[in-house]
C-alpha cells in the first residue's frame, strides 16, 4: 500500500468519525437502554406457549406490549433491572462503533483517493453498501465476545422473575431434562472482563464467538443503514456550501428512516443471533445445545410461524430507531465540533 493510501487510513478524518460515532452511540444507548432490555426479554424470555396464546388472544397480545413489559419488569424485579448490564454494553458499544466508523470511513477515504475528482467522487449507494459490509465483517470478528457477555448479563434477571412467579424457571428446566445450556443461572460474573475470562475458561473460543455466524450475516443491517443514511445525506447536502450543515432534526430523521428499513429487513436474523448468544434460553423450544443458525430459523418458523420470526419487533423498532436517530444526530454534531478543533476549516468538507 502506498504512503498516500496509508495516510488516508490513518487520517484525522477517520479518527474524528470513529470518536464521534463512539460518543454518539454511548449517548443514544444511555437514553434508550430500557427499551433494549425489553427487546432482549421478548426475544429470549417469553416462550412458545406464552407467545402463541398472545397471538390468539387480544388481551394477552396487549400484555406483551413494550409499555406493559416495562411496568412488569419494574414491579417484579425493580427499576434497576431496566439498566442491568448497562456499563458493559456501553463499553462494548464504544469499542464496536469505534471499529465500525473507523473502518467504514477509512475505506471511503481509500475509495475517494483512488478516484479522480475529489473527496466526494465515486460515491454511490452500492459502493456504500459494500464498504458497510466490509466494515461490519471487521467489527464482528473483533467484538463478538463482548456482545456474548453483554447478552448473558442482561438476562440475569430471568431466573429471579421465575422464582417470583412460583418456580416457573425450575419446572421449565425439569421439563427439558434439567438441561440449562448457558441460561442466566450459570452467569457467575458481573463485568465485561470477568465474563470474557469465565466464558473462555468454561466454553472456549466457540462460546466467546457464539452467534458469530448470524452476526456475519447481519453485517448487512448496518450496511443497509449506512447506505440509506449516506444516500439521504448526499441528497440533502447536494449544492450546499461546506460551511452549511443540515439541522439536528434532519440528521435525526434520516437516521431513523435508515435504521427502520435495515431493522425490518434483517430482524429474523437478529432474533436468532440473540438466542444463540444467550445459549438458547427459550426452553419451550427444547433446542439442542449445538444448533446452528439455519436450523434455529427453521424451528422457529415451523413452531411459531412467520410471527415468531418477528417476535419483539415492536420493542426492537422503538429502541433501535430512536437510538440510531439520536446517535446519528449526536455523531454529526460532535464530528463537526471536533473537526473545528483539530482540522483546518478547509478540511471540514472532507468529512462528508
From TrEMBL:
A cellular component annotation (GO) from this entry: peroxisomal membrane
UniProt-annotated location(s): Peroxisome membrane
Molecular function GO terms recorded: ADP transmembrane transporter activity; AMP transmembrane transporter activity; ATP transmembrane transporter activity; coenzyme A transmembrane transporter activity; FAD transmembrane transporter activity; FMN transmembrane transporter activity; NAD transmembrane transporter activity
PROSITE patterns, sorted: SOLCAR (PS50920)
Keyword Membrane: yes
A Pfam family per the record: Mito_carr
Transmembrane helix recorded as keyword: yes
Major subcellular location class: membrane
Transmembrane segments: none
Placement of Solcar repeats on the sequence: 12-110, 123-235, 246-337
Domain of life: Eukaryota
Membrane topology value: Multi-pass membrane protein
InterPro entries (UniProt xref): MCP_dom_sf, MCP_transmembrane, Mito/Peroxisomal_Carrier
Keyword field: Membrane, Peroxisome, Repeat, Transmembrane, Transmembrane helix, Transport
PANTHER family: PEROXISOMAL MEMBRANE PROTEIN PMP34 (PTHR45939:SF5), PEROXISOMAL MEMBRANE PROTEIN PMP34-RELATED (PTHR45939)
Family: Belongs to the mitochondrial carrier (TC 2.A.29) family.
Protein name: Peroxisomal membrane protein PMP34
Organism of this sequence: Anopheles albimanus (New world malaria mosquito)
Amino acid at each position: 500500500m502506498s504512503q498516500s493510501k496509508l495516510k488516508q487510513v490513518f487520517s484525522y478524518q477517520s479518527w474524528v468519525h470513529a470518536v464521534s460515532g463512539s460518543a454518539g452511540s454511548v449517548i443514544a444507548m444511555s437514553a434508550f437502554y430500557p427499551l433494549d432490555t425489553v427487546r432482549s426479554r421478548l426475544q429470549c424470555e417469553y416462550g412458545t406457549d406464552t407467545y402463541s396464546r398472545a397471538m390468539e388472544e387480544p388481551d394477552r397480545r396487549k400484555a406483551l406490549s413494550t409499555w406493559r413489559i416495562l411496568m412488569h419488569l419494574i414491579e417484579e424485579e425493580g427499576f434497576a433491572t431496566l439498566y442491568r448490564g448497562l456499563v458493559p454494553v456501553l463499553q462494548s458499544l464504544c469499542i464496536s462503533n469505534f471499529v465500525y466508523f473507523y473502518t467504514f470511513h477509512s475505506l471511503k477515504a481509500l475509495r475517494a483517493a483512488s478516484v479522480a475528482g475529489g473527496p466526494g467522487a465515486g460515491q454511490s449507494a452500492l459502493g456504500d453498501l459494500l464498504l458497510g459490509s466490509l466494515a461490519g465483517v471487521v467489527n464482528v470478528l473483533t467484538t463478538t465476545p463482548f456482545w456474548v457477555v453483554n447478552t448473558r448479563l442482561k438476562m440475569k434477571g430471568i431466573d429471579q422473575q421465575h422464582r417470583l412467579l412460583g418456580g416457573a424457571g425450575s419446572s421449565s428446566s425439569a421439563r427439558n431434562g434439567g438441561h440449562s445450556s448457558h441460561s442466566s443461572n450459570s452467569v457467575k460474573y458481573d463485568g465485561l472482563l470477568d465474563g470474557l475470562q469465565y466464558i473462555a475458561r468454561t466454553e472456549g473460543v466457540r462460546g466467546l464467538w457464539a452467534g458469530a455466524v448470524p452476526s456475519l450475516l447481519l453485517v448487512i443491517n448496518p450496511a443497509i443503514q449506512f447506505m440509506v443514511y449516506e444516500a439521504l445525506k448526499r441528497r440533502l447536502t447536494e449544492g450546499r456550501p461546506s460551511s452549511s450543515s443540515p439541522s439536528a432534526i434532519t440528521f435525526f430523521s434520516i437516521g431513523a428512516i435508515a435504521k427502520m428499513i435495515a431493522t425490518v429487513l434483517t430482524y429474523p436474523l437478529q432474533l436468532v443471533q440473540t438466542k444463540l448468544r444467550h445459549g438458547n434460553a427459550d426452553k419451550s423450544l427444547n433446542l439442542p445445545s449445538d444448533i446452528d443458525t439455519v436450523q434455529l430459523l427453521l424451528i422457529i418458523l415451523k413452531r411459531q410461524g412467520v410471527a415468531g420470526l418477528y417476535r419483539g419487533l415492536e420493542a426492537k423498532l422503538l429502541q433501535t430507531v430512536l437510538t440510531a436517530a439520536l446517535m446519528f444526530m449526536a455523531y454529526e454534531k460532535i464530528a463537526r465540533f471536533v473537526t473545528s478543533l483539530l482540522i483546518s476549516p478547509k478540511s471540514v468538507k472532507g468529512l462528508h
